[in-house]
Amino acid sequence: MLSSIIDYVEELKDQFVPYVAKAEDDVEDSNDADEDEDEDDEDDEDEDEAKDQYDELKEECLNTEKGKELHHHYLECAERVQKQKEQPGYEDLEHKEDCVEEFFHLQHYLDSCAAPRLFSKLK
Amino acid sequence: MFSKSIFNRVASKAAARTMATAAGTSAKAASSSKFLITGAALAGVTASGLLYADSLTANAMTAAEHGLHSPEFDWPQNGPFETFDHASIRRGYQVYREVCAACHSLDRVAWRTLVGVSHTNSEVKAMAEEFEYDDEPDDDGNPKKRPGKLADNIPGPYPNEQAARAANQGALPPDLSLIVKARHGGSDYIFSLLTGYPEEPPEGVVLPVGANYNPYFPGGSIAMGRVLFDDLVEYEDGTPATTSQMAKDVTQFLNWASEPEHDERKRQGLKAIIILSSLYLLSVWVKKFKWAGIKTRKFTFTPPKPRK
Amino acid sequence: MSFASVYKVLFKRNSIFVGTVFVGAFLFQTTFDSAITKWYENHNKGKLWKDVKARIGAPEEAEDDE
């Protein structure tokens, strides 16, 4: 009984207190972001010489100010979820956070930025 | 909004019920009104509790369940007077044949429809002859096979649905004949889906065994893996076969398969709009012409002189 | 040609009048259709099958003959 009341209060708290994600500060995190991008670059270059036009445009969009910000948001979420995964009892959690929303925000921006310019580059 | 209306309904039902019992004992009017209020309050509290309990288990329709909305691309056929790019359809057929046809059928498209759209008559004949079809049985009743003809439909990779599911871990690859019409977003969606496989699913997403992540697919978890990779096919016209180029061509081909009447429809539409709008304007002029006399006529009344 | 002479030549006899309507409709239909088609194909130049055929058709046919 008592534990269910505590759960209830916790849930109420979760509803009203948002997870805080900071986009501006934390120099560490933005370094992480750069590293990730670099890794992606290397992978692609290993695979093929002629790069896909859509990927190129999306990468260009990722390096715009808004793209960087959204990517940073996503990475921060990914890091948070990673940390949650390492905590004991993660498997039994009723609600497991995922980064789909952050990923969608980033992808949606990349799409809207790259899509209008793509077909002029294709035959 | 919704929960509120449910609440009202539950509360009013409960109130009606208490009212009915109260009506039976109308003699004790004073005590029954007290009973009524307590009953209504009790019903309200119960309804709130039930609703709250329900809200704990309810699953909201999330962004992931909707799927990521595909952006709009500059398709060659965008616009009221634009046709498909037939060079692209031709390349798209090659991509379908070499990549998609391993799993997806194209049941409703006959070989002959490709003639004069993306291939010449002799090309399509040769393509059809590569496949075997059931023929009439011979005189002893033994089944026979014959090479394909222009009138045959393009054969699929599997003989039936069960075979298709068995070969794909229970997932049925949909027939692609009408896929562009059958999916919200049409060509834009198909293109986004083909090019939209991320290298890693977003952190925290748990996929079923054998499933792949694609943000554009509603729910995110799709049985089809990424199939288009750079330089997977070699185009005969020397177009660099990047992933997005192949995705564009095959989507254009599938759009043609869904709407083979597309180019002719737009030409006829142009004719119809010109004829119908000029006939409309003509009818306006005729109406004005016919009514001009009626609208501009003048009535005069000269009263007769009174007789004396 | 004044209206009176048009009337005399085309409208006076019903058989001629009906014939005029039929022939006129036919002529209008053919010229209108070919004009629209010409504009439409010019507007979509390069995307149509006949353009594609001209670009890649000839060598393709040669391969088929072999």
TrEMBL record, chain A:
<comment type="similarity">
    <text>Belongs to the UQCRH/QCR6 family.</text>
</comment>
<dbReference type="GO" id="GO:0005743">
    <property type="term" value="C:mitochondrial inner membrane"/>
</dbReference>
<feature type="domain" description="Ubiquinol-cytochrome C reductase hinge">
    <location>
        <begin position="52"/>
        <end position="123"/>
    </location>
</feature>
<keyword id="KW-0813">Transport</keyword>
<keyword id="KW-0249">Electron transport</keyword>
<dbReference type="InterPro" id="IPR036811">
    <property type="entry name" value="Ubol_cytC_Rdtase_hinge_dom_sf"/>
</dbReference>
<feature type="compositionally biased region" description="Acidic residues">
    <location>
        <begin position="25"/>
        <end position="50"/>
    </location>
</feature>
<dbReference type="InterPro" id="IPR023184">
    <property type="entry name" value="Ubol_cytC_Rdtase_hinge_dom"/>
</dbReference>
<keyword id="KW-0472">Membrane</keyword>
<dbReference type="GO" id="GO:0006122">
    <property type="term" value="P:mitochondrial electron transport, ubiquinol to cytochrome c"/>
</dbReference>
<feature type="region of interest" description="Disordered">
    <location>
        <begin position="20"/>
        <end position="55"/>
    </location>
</feature>
<keyword id="KW-0496">Mitochondrion</keyword>
<keyword id="KW-0999">Mitochondrion inner membrane</keyword>
<dbReference type="InterPro" id="IPR003422">
    <property type="entry name" value="Cyt_b-c1_6"/>
</dbReference>
<dbReference type="Pfam" id="PF02320">
    <property type="entry name" value="UCR_hinge"/>
</dbReference>
Automatic annotation (TrEMBL), chain B:
<feature type="region of interest" description="Disordered">
    <location>
        <begin position="130"/>
        <end position="168"/>
    </location>
</feature>
<keyword id="KW-0999">Mitochondrion inner membrane</keyword>
<feature type="binding site" description="covalent">
    <location>
        <position position="100"/>
    </location>
    <ligand>
        <name>heme c</name>
    </ligand>
</feature>
<dbReference type="InterPro" id="IPR036909">
    <property type="entry name" value="Cyt_c-like_dom_sf"/>
</dbReference>
<protein>
    <recommendedName>
        <fullName>quinol--cytochrome-c reductase</fullName>
        <ecNumber>7.1.1.8</ecNumber>
    </recommendedName>
</protein>
<keyword id="KW-0679">Respiratory chain</keyword>
<dbReference type="GO" id="GO:0020037">
    <property type="term" value="F:heme binding"/>
</dbReference>
<dbReference type="Pfam" id="PF02167">
    <property type="entry name" value="Cytochrom_C1"/>
</dbReference>
<dbReference type="GO" id="GO:0008121">
    <property type="term" value="F:quinol-cytochrome-c reductase activity"/>
</dbReference>
<keyword id="KW-0479">Metal-binding</keyword>
<feature type="binding site" description="covalent">
    <location>
        <position position="224"/>
    </location>
    <ligand>
        <name>heme c</name>
    </ligand>
</feature>
<keyword id="KW-1133">Transmembrane helix</keyword>
<keyword id="KW-0349">Heme</keyword>
<keyword id="KW-0812">Transmembrane</keyword>
<keyword id="KW-0472">Membrane</keyword>
Automatic annotation (TrEMBL), chain C:
<comment type="subunit">
    <text>Component of the ubiquinol-cytochrome c oxidoreductase (cytochrome b-c1 complex, complex III, CIII), a multisubunit enzyme composed of 3 respiratory subunits cytochrome b, cytochrome c1 and Rieske protein, 2 core protein subunits, and additional low-molecular weight protein subunits.</text>
</comment>
<dbReference type="GO" id="GO:0045275">
    <property type="term" value="C:respiratory chain complex III"/>
</dbReference>
<keyword id="KW-0472">Membrane</keyword>
<dbReference type="InterPro" id="IPR008027">
    <property type="entry name" value="QCR9"/>
</dbReference>
<keyword id="KW-0679">Respiratory chain</keyword>
<comment type="function">
    <text>Component of the ubiquinol-cytochrome c oxidoreductase, a multisubunit transmembrane complex that is part of the mitochondrial electron transport chain which drives oxidative phosphorylation. The complex plays an important role in the uptake of multiple carbon sources present in different host niches.</text>
</comment>
<keyword id="KW-0812">Transmembrane</keyword>
<dbReference type="GO" id="GO:0006122">
    <property type="term" value="P:mitochondrial electron transport, ubiquinol to cytochrome c"/>
</dbReference>
<dbReference type="Pfam" id="PF05365">
    <property type="entry name" value="UCR_UQCRX_QCR9"/>
</dbReference>
<keyword id="KW-0999">Mitochondrion inner membrane</keyword>
<keyword id="KW-0249">Electron transport</keyword>
<comment type="similarity">
    <text>Belongs to the UQCR10/QCR9 family.</text>
</comment>
<protein>
    <recommendedName>
        <fullName>Complex III subunit 9</fullName>
    </recommendedName>
</protein>
<dbReference type="InterPro" id="IPR036656">
    <property type="entry name" value="QCR9_sf"/>
</dbReference>
<keyword id="KW-0496">Mitochondrion</keyword>
